Amino acid sequence: MVSFHNGLLTSKIIGLIFSLSLIFFDVGDSYSSIIFIMIMLSIGIPHGSVDHIIAFLNPESRRFSSKLHFFIAYISLIIINVIIWVFSPFIGLTIFLIISCYHFGETQVIGYNSTENKFLNFVVGANILLSLFLNNIFELQEILVDFKLFSTLDLSSFEKIFFLLISVSILMMTIVHFDIKKKVPLYAELTILYLIFYHTDILTSFSIFFGFSHSLPMLLMEYEEMKEKSFLIFYFKTLPFTLLAIAFGLVLYYFNNSILTTDNLILFVFIIISSLTLPHVFIMKDFVKSK
Amino acid sequence: MNTLNFILGASLQPGDFTGFTFFIGSVSMLAATVFFLVQHGQVDKKYKDSMLVAALITGIAAVHYYYMRDQWAEGLGSPTELRYVDWILTVPLMVVEFSLLTGVGMAKLFWLSVGMLVTGYFGESGVTGMLDAQTWGAVAGLCYFWMAYEVGALRALSDGMPSGAVGDALASAKGKIPAAGKMLQWYVLVGWSIYPLGYMLGTDGWYSGMLSGLNWNMDIVYNIGDAINKIGFGMAVWSAARD
């Protein structure tokens, strides 16, 4: 059995080695989709595939009376999210960003501070996403071509380094002004992420962050809390809902709508991820309570 | 050797001393990173964060020196943007070492380092189209002097010299911290003064006539400055942390 903090460090070191390998071996942007799919299928989706088990693990914050109650709430949130995206991608994206900021921040501060300060959780997550977007802002404009207000902004007079500087400055403000138990290690880890965000494209950046800085540590934490005999047995338990999530994505892709006919795969991926993320955030919020 | 060229990308030309300093910078930073990470496990718990930050500084620099060497070898000129990307990420981490040792001054040192880098970049790249390099350089210099005052850099020369809160905290700290602080103060006073020299070699200003006779290259000066300061900063912390 691995201790959580060893697992946390191990997963982040794996991510760092992977990222540096991409940089040193100059793996081009053309592989970013493959990297994204591999990480999502092997780590990303599985880390949320045991929500139905971990929702009942922490007695301090248990909020479902039965599995049926859990599944009704969980699936309802997914359906509501898809409907919001279909009718208003702008509102869908806004909700996704807000909950993602909170969720990513909450898991990021584990090991550096208590997760009780919810505003700090949100701000740390916002820092990460802001840096991810700012350091790849020209690419983001191409992806979010449907959001005219943003995609038509003329940013050509700004150099990429300018956006790195903004994200580092905001991070500094956060670190200085919040009461964080381990300020410097948190700043140091986020600096590594910013380095990766600057040097890799947006999809690879997100894959590395989401896979190794978020999902893998959470997967190891779930493994530890579920007290399975081996990691393989635990991982096997993630498979049914991982496959179900993939099927859900394929169904949504098949019954596509006007948004998806733009061939904008990344926007489609946003919808899938946000639909899976929304209910997962509430489960994880309870799961990581007091960690 | 040819089998390794897929890692290195473009090859350095014979006699390219500037390119060679990029290469040396890359491998020495990498070696220092490995050293600091190995030592991280050996030092007292209270110094572990400092050792990790030292490894991070040289690690980030190793990545950027790898890129800079490649850009230089491909004949794309001085890698100003990559150098400043490296500095934006590493200089705040260097000033954080002072805060880790003393627990004070983090906010002020952070902002001064940002001010120094932003104005330095504006001057060196000319990206703003406003003011000239010597004016931006003067502002960057002011930030540097203020930072040097805050950390008590002049106290490297004599204990009676004026200092800011960080320098005072270093002097009154217990154990090996004052000795390590003294070494860091030497680096800020002498090591960091290499950078203004590099800046003046690479830009036009009142100093151009004075420095033209030296026939030095800006990148060589910066590369030497980085190697001394980044590795040296970590070594200073390590010297306090060992035993």
Secondary structure elements and pairings:
The complex is a heterodimer of chains A (291) and B (243).
Chain A: H1 4-24, H2 32-44, H3 51-54, H4 67-87, H5 89-108, H6 118-134, H7 137-143, H8 148-151, H9 160-177, H10 183-199, H11 202-226, H12 231-254, H13 265-287
Chain B: H1 5-8, H2 17-40, H3 48-73, H4 80-102, H5 106-125, H6 133-150, H7 165-172, H8 177-191, H9 194-202, H10 208-212, H11 218-241
Helix pairs in contact in B: 2-3, 2-11, 3-4, 3-11, 4-5, 5-6, 7-8, 8-11, 9-11
Radius of gyration of CA atoms of chain B, rounded to a whole number: 18 Å
State the helical fraction of chain B.
over 70%
Shape of chain A: globular
Element order of chain B: H for helix, E for strand:
HHHHHHHHHHH
Main beta-sheet annotation of chain B: none
Largest β-sheet summary of chain A: none
Count the strands of chain A?
A: 0
Structural class category of chain B: mainly alpha
| Strand content bin of chain B | under 5%
CATH architecture of chain B: Up-down Bundle
The first-level CATH class of chain B is given as Mainly Alpha
Structure classification of chain A: mainly alpha
Number of helices of chain B: 11
Number of helices of chain A: 13
Q: Which residues of chain A sit in consecutive blocks of at least 5 with pLDDT less than 50?
A: none
Low-confidence stretches of chain B: 1-6
In helices, the fraction of residues of chain A equals over 70%
Count the domains of chain B.
1
